[in-house]
Q: What sequence folds into this?
């Protein structure tokens, strides 16, 4: 019996990663991500999967970011009762991210209903905090480099991928075939995380391509962020920094601390981390010292260099302060959460600044801001944008095209097939061409819903 993969997400888009591996009557889902960005993509979250959840035998997560894990509460609520296999770091981060995702969806639906700007009556969350808490009981944690059996006769091994705490590449062995899923690969020169492991031998490789069409700049995040915050402090403005609560929040905090130590920005510049999720994630860095580059002293500095804002009342109180100050808040693409309230308040003034810290998926508010649009829609209203927009090119947690190619180059032998996923169409096709022409390997960008052999 042959082995196949059905691409249920992450195909010609950077969101919604879901890869269904079939062998005979058995099925395994690699990643269980939410679609984000364009409305036509987000609507897929409400469309049932082509396989009933109770017919899936096992789920494996490569890491905890919502575009890889955020559909899990819905999958479980709709009938998936099996194990969810993950690294220890991914388990711990999912315990933070998934309930927060459910809570934000409930809050956004309630806000829409109170203010009447939803087309649905009533607006409903995709899932709730209670749904998310329930699915956490199904997660079974594994160490890196230790093989386990998600299904009898199937063998799986997690390899370090960098990117964020717990992030893994996955080697899946079934029916004599070796399938390697890159997951989201970190950078070899990441400011925060250690580099990915070398790739093992595989018959089929499924590789992400978020930055498959570009090369990161040589300057680091300090060289980009320092002058920007120096300008901001000089004019007494407020910088709103939408951050991914896992990874980028900690990188920006570390960068701000370094800039203050070097004297490149004022030591008394107030910094606020307005994200309980990011606060809890920062606390985890002590538990995974072998996965990142920070010393114990630097980990402690992450919590000292900013005022931690936990409650909604504390968040609202920031509006009564005057600049200069820096506010870090989730989400990183401004798709929801507390950052929307700060953007609505501060985006209009030329004294202020909006700092974008990573990839902005098309269709998100972050992408709208990055494009230089004169306004952005927040909570049903068009908010004018007069603030300076700064997009950090060096803060991405993803490997760029040369680094993706270098990782593929560590494979000891050529695979028979490479599938290019988790990228916009242009980026995926650019990486496909590099794989075909540079390495001489067969490469394909699969379409959403397509099934291919391995």
A:
């Amino acid at each position: 019996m042959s082995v196949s993969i059905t691409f249920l997400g992450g195909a010609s888009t950077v969101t919604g990663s879901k890869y269904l591996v079939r062998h005979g009557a058995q099925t395994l889902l690699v990643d269980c991500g939410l679609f984000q960005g364009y409305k036509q993509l987000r609507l897929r979250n409400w469309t049932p999967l082509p396989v009933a959840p109770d017919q899936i035998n096992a789920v494996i997560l490569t890491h905890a970011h919502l575009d890889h894990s955020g559909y899990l509460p819905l999958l479980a609520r709709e009938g998936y009762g099996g194990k969810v296999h993950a690294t220890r770091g991914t388990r711990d981060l999912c315990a933070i991210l998934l309930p927060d995702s459910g809570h934000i969806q409930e809050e956004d639906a309630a806000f829409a209903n109170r203010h009447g700007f939803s087309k649905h009556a009533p607006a409903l969350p995709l899932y709730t905090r209670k749904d998310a808490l329930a699915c956490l009981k199904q997660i079974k944690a594994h160490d890196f480099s230790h093989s386990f059996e998600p299904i009898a006769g199937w063998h799986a091994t997690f390899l370090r991928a960098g990117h964020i705490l717990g992030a893994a590449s996955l080697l899946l062995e079934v029916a004599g075939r070796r399938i390697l899923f890159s997951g989201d690969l970190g950078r070899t020169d990441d400011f925060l995380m250690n580099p990915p492991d070398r790739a093992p031998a595989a018959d089929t490789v499924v590789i992400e391509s978020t930055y498959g069409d570009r090369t990161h700049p040589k300057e680091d995040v300090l060289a980009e962020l320092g002058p920007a915050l120096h300008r901001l402090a000089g004019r007494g403005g407020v910088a709103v920094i939408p951050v991914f609560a896992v990874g980028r929040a900690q990188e920006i905090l570390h960068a701000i601390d370094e800039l203050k130590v070097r004297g490149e920005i004022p030591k008394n510049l107030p910094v606020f981390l307005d994200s309980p999720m990011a606060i809890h994630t920062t606390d985890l860095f002590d538990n995974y010292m072998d996965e990142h580059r920070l010393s114990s002293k630097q980990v402690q500095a992450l919590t000292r260099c900013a005022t931690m804002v936990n409650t909604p009342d504390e968040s609202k109180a920031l509006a009564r302060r005057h600049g200069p100050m820096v506010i870090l808040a989730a989400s990183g693409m401004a798709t929801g959460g507390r950052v929307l309230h700060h953007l609505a308040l501060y985006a209009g003034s030329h004294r202020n600044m909006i700092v974008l810290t990573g990839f902005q998926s098309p269709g998100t508010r972050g992408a709208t801001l990055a494009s230089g649009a004169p306004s952005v829609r927040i909570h049903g209203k068009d908010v004018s944008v007069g603030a300076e927009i700064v997009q950090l090119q060096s803060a991405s947690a993803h490997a760029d095209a040369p680094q993706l190619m270098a990782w593929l180059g560590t494979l000891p032998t050529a695979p028979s097939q490479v599938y290019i996923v988790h990228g916009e169409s242009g980026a995926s096709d650019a990486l496909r061409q590099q794989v075909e022409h540079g390495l001489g390997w067969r490469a394909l960008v699969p379409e959403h819903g397509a099934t291919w052999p391995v």
About this structure: The chain has a mean pLDDT of 94.
